[in-house]
Structures are given as structure tokens and as C-alpha cells.
Write a structure and sequence with these properties.
Largest sheet: none
Number of domains: 1
Helix content: over 70%
Strand content: under 5%
Structural class: mainly alpha
Distance between the termini: 15 Å
Shape: globular
Oligomer: single chain
Radius of gyration: 18 Å
Number of helices: 14
Length: 304
């Protein structure tokens, strides 16, 4: 495991790879929410309990269990993730995917600051400059879309609150993953989040009914971005929180490209150029960051 601490090591490269895959999977969230017709709280309720069921099945197949210790460590992350997912369902419904994406692109800046303050990660001028460049590139991708920022104030506010919640979730998850294996930790996170949303969904008086055509999208919402969360948390063992946060903003240009292909929203030359700038900056941040021994060792090994 010693060579896993080197920037060019196999484990480090694998960690970056799963982070990139997770970001791509997250990029389809807005489109899935668009096609899933359930009300916001109910949609989040279904999504979270589907994720819980899937994680428990995976634990069973791996002959592992969910200890109370993992659930307790997952409480802060689970509550914040529940808030993030709920806010972003409202954001995608009340404002454009463009608005929600550009606001969400601010998350790495928050994580960069919080990682330095709470986790002791070294953040240099290079990382700050490239992070700003990446955020600017992503902002260019989404802001150059036909819908301008501020279509609906309540939706923009929901995106801001969701971004703040996700930044806190990111930091708590990074800290907890030093002690809890990926599968157990994410199972605990989904369980805590699902329990938290249940009374909210029940008291919101939203309809729990869904048409046969909506169920595939509801299930997809639990599976696609849910697997992305598992992958990203596995990668926390090999990639600094500030770096993985920057990689995560790749979901915004992915969302723009998916909207162009699936929803017929064409990308302009400016959007494409800004996307190239963002991806390049993300790659440079990821390539240049060293990793520590603590980040390179999983509590139960890299086979999680």
C-alpha cells in the first residue's frame, strides 16, 4: 500500500477515475428529475428508500452487515445529504437546470475553504487559481444557455441551500471515511437520510401516487446518482476533498450536454469553449495534488 501515496500510483489514478465517473452520473440527475413526475418530498422519499434497499442488498451479497457505529458516524452526512437532495428537487422544478447548475458550481470553493480549515488539507495558490478557473468555465457553460440566471427566485434559493448542505455533507463524509468502509458508511448515510425525509413527506400532504411511466425514472433517480455517491465516497480514500469537489463540478457541463442530446437544447460555441476550459482546469488540479498516507488506506482495503 505504500506506493498508493504517490500521485501517479494505481490507487490514486483509480480514485480519480471513479470520481470522474461519479460526476458524469450526477450530470443526469436534472434530466431524471424532469421526467419523474412525483411531488418533490415524495420523490426524495422514494429515491432515498430505494437507495437504502439497494445498499442493504449489496451488503447482504458481500456477507457484510450495517453496524450501529457506521450509522452513528453517518448521521451528519445523512441529514445534510437529505437536505441537499430535497432542495435540488425543488430547484430543478422551480428554476432551470442551468440556474441550479451554475449555483452548484460554487460548491468546490466552499469545500476548498472548509477542507483547509477543518481537515488540514494544504491549499495553495495553484489550486485556488485552477479552482476559480474551473468554476468560471462551468459558469460559462451554464450561463450561456438560453435560460438566464434568476428565472425563479425560490428555485435559485433552493439551489443555494442545497449547495451549502452538500458542501457540509462532503466534509463530514471525508472525515467519516477515515473510520468507516465505503459500503457500510453509504448504507448508513442513505438510511439516516431516508428516515429524516419520511416524516417530512408524510406531513407535506403530497400524493404518493405515481404513474407506470414515472416509476422507471423514480427508480433511476435512486440508482444512477446514488451509485455516483458510493463511487465518490470510495474515492475519498485516495483523493483530497478539495480535489474531488472540483472534479464533481464536471456534472454541470455533462448536464448541459445531456440536455442538448436528450431534450434538444443545443450547445453554443461559447458553451463548448467554456466546457473545455473547465475540464482542463479540473484535470490540472487533479493531476497536481499530492495524496497522504491517511487518504490512501481504506479501513477494509481497496476492494470496497
Amino acid at each position: 500500500m505504500a506506493d498508493a501515496t504517490l500521485p501517479g500510483s494505481r490507487s490514486g489514478a483509480l480514485g480519480l477515475g471513479v470520481d470522474l465517473l461519479a460526476a458524469v452520473m450526477w450530470g443526469f440527475t436534472g434530466i431524471i428529475v424532469t421526467y419523474a413526475g412525483a411531488a418533490p418530498f415524495v420523490l426524495t422519499f422514494y429515491r432515498l428508500w430505494i437507495s437504502v434497499a439497494l445498499m442493504l442488498v449489496v451488503l447482504f451479497l458481500r456477507h457484510r452487515r450495517l453496524p450501529w457505529r457506521a450509522v452513528l458516524y453517518a448521521v451528519p452526512s445523512g441529514l445534510l445529504l437529505c437536505a441537499n437532495l430535497t432542495c435540488y428537487v425543488f430547484a430543478f422544478r422551480l428554476t432551470s437546470i442551468t440556474d441550479a447548475s451554475v449555483i452548484g458550481a460554487l460548491q468546490p470553493a466552499l469545500v476548498l475553504i472548509m477542507a483547509g480549515m477543518l481537515l488540514g488539507e494544504m491549499v495553495g495558490v495553484r489550486e485556488v487559481a485552477l479552482t476559480v478557473t474551473a468554476i468560471a468555465g462551468v459558469a460559462g457553460v451554464v450561463a450561456a444557455a438560453p435560460a438566464a440566471l434568476g428565472v425563479h427566485g425560490k428555485g435559485d434559493l433552493a439551489a443555494v441551500l442545497g449547495t451549502l448542505a452538500f458542501s457540509g455533507y462532503w466534509i463530514f463524509a471525508k472525515s467519516a471515511r477515515q473510520r468507516i468502509p465505503t459500503l457500510e458508511f453509504m448504507s448508513g448515510v442513505w438510511l439516516v437520510a431516508a428516515i429524516a425525509i419520511t416524516p417530512v413527506a408524510l406531513f407535506a400532504r403530497e400524493s404518493f401516487a405515481a404513474t407506470p411511466g414515472e416509476w422507471p425514472w423514480i427508480v433511476a433517480l435512486g440508482v444512477v446518482p446514488g451509485v455516483g455517491h458510493v463511487l465518490m465516497n470510495w474515492g475519498h480514500r485516495f483523493v483530497a476533498a478539495s480535489v474531488s469537489a472540483v472534479i464533481g463540478i464536471l456534472n454541470a457541463p455533462v448536464a448541459a450536454a445531456a440536455a442538448a442530446i436528450i431534450l434538444g437544447q443545443a450547445l453554443s460555441a461559447i458553451q463548448i469553449l467554456c466546457g473545455v476550459v473547465a475540464v482542463t482546469a479540473i484535470a490540472l488540479v487533479a493531476k497536481g495534488r499530492p495524496k497522504t498516507a491517511e487518504e490512501a488506506v481504506d479501513p477494509v482495503g481497496v476492494a470496497d
